[in-house]
Write a structure and sequence with these properties.
Helix 8 runs parallel beside helix 9. This protein has twelve helices and 18 strands. It is α/β, with parallel strands linked by helices and about 400 residues long. The two termini are about 45 Å apart. Strands 1, 11, 12, 13, 14, 15, 16, 17 and 18 form a nine-stranded mixed sheet that branches. Strands 2-3-4-5-6-8-9-10 form an eight-stranded parallel barrel, surrounded by four helices. It has two domains: about 140 residues, Lyase, Ornithine Decarboxylase, Chain A, domain 1 (Beta Barrel), CATH 2.40.37.10; about 240 residues, Alanine racemase (TIM Barrel, Alpha-Beta Barrel). Helix content is about 30%, strand content about 25%. A hairpin with a 4-residue loop joins strand 11 and strand 12.
């Protein structure tokens, strides 16, 4: 990747995506997530990067889409993404969002709770539209990850507990409705998971749930497959994950004497994270009694994850990757916050003002969670495919920064 040329062409901060890497991950999933016993479907969890360009790429590879907001549905619609291949998540979908989804024939709504189901039932009857749903189940399995990205413990804000009073009331409501069709169940146990054992437990529980029904159901296992941010991370190859999930489901179906219609997964981070890098220019160097700082021209406005849940990253100074890394450095952003740190206490070579710094594995949640805090401008995004770069999101302008202010 010619980072120097990309900086000259687009400036910094800059998000860069290796499209060939993304394609290789998608292919690994598609080749191995197959069964002769049931249908399979791969959904791109688009909250990690929801832009037109990635939706177009996902369409090229015939993946379906997992969305969590009206904005993501609208973005998908803007590139003519097939509505019947969209799965709509969220624990507090508004009436506006649900109405838009039903009116525009979004394929499946993943229902999070009884309150939401009542609203869907009312809207479906009012609009006289059939609605296919999954119920999001809280299977009570806690993956070993950061508490902010664990999503399936018993007091999680997501999902309902199997056989709880809320769950049973939901089934009663569904049976009474002429417009709602329950086609399956969804579970998501967390993110950045490096051990497949929790998935095995979730599969066992979900297959036990669909055993209650007289017709073949769908099972959606969510995502959460880990990626490599630092040398401490040991992600499982995605072809192995796909094969393991298929074989485990097939084994459980045989043991519990159940058939299902379809098995789904929702990789998001694992598709784009390692394909993405962020480029910064070092604009200041500061030595304190106990620290050496390299200041960059971005920070928590383009990557909030270190401040939000202590995410860790690797970095290099472009052109000095092979130089002796003898400096213990904290890479700090330019926001007026002490917590605006990209990487703390990392080894890098001696830097000069104007050096180009690259941080790796920033493809997931960087742009998606970016902000205009301190009136920072949102960086552009460049896709690089077959050696050719393409601007897919341009840098925000000062005029755009205040255009909605009255």
């Amino acid at each position: 990747m010619d980072y120097i040329n990309l900086k000259k062409k687009y400036g910094t901060p800059l998000y860069v995506y290796d499209v060939d890497h993304i394609k290789s991950i998608i292919t690994a999933y598609q080749t191995n997530f197959k069964s002769k016993q049931f249908q399979t479907e791969i959904l791109y969890a688009s909250k990690v990067l929801s832009i037109k360009a990635i939706y177009r790429l996902i369409m090229r590879y015939q993946l379906s889409l997992d969305v969590v907001s009206l904005g993501e549905v609208y973005t998908a619609a803007s590139v003519n993404f097939p509505m019947n291949q969209i799965y709509f998540h969220g624990n507090n979908k508004s009436v506006e969002e649900l109405s838009y989804a039903i009116k525009n024939n979004v394929g499946t709504i993943i229902v999070d709770n009884l309150c939401e189901l009542k609203q869907i039932a009312h809207l479906a009857e009012e609009m006289q539209r059939k609605v296919q749903i999954y119920i999001r189940l809280n299977v009570g399995i806690e993956a070993h990850t950061h508490k902010y990205i664990v999503t399936s413990h018993v007091d999680s804000k997501f999902g309902v507990l199997y056989q709880s009073a809320e769950y049973l009331e939901m089934l009663t409501l569904i049976q009474a409705s002429s417009y709602i069709h329950l086609q399956g169940f969804h579970s998501h146990i967390g993110s950045q998971i490096f051990d497949l054992t929790p998935y095995d437990a979730a599969i066992h529980k979900l297959i036990g749930v669909v055993k209650d029904f007289a017709y073949p159901m769908d099972i959606n296992l969510g995502g959460g497959f880990g990626v490599s941010y630092t040398s401490a991370d040991s992600p499982i190859p995605y072809d192995q994950i796909a094969k393991h999930l298929i074989s485990t489901v097939e084994k459980e179906l045989a043991e519990q004497h159940v058939t299902i219609r379809k098995l789904c997964i929702e990789p998001g981070r694992s598709i784009v994270a390692e394909a993405g890098t962020t480029l910064y220019t070092i604009g200041g160097i500061k030595k304190t009694p106990n620290k050496l700082y390299y200041f960059v021209d971005g920070g928590m406005t383009d990557n909030i994850r270190p401040a939000l849940y202590q995410a860790q990253y690797r970095a290099d100074i472009v052109g000095k990757e092979e130089h002796f890394k003898n400096q213990v450095v904290t890479i700090a952003g330019k926001c007026c916050e002490s917590g605006d740190i990209i990487i703390e206490n990392t080894l890098l070579p001696e830097a000069q003002l104007g050096d180009l710094l690259v941080t790796y594995t920033t493809g997931a949640y960087g742009y998606a969670m970016s902000s205009n805090y301190n009136k920072a401008l949102t960086p552009p995004i460049v896709f690089v495919e077959d050696g050719k770069d393409e601007l897919v999101v341009r840098r925000q302008t000062l005029e755009e920064l205040i255009e909605r202010e009255i």
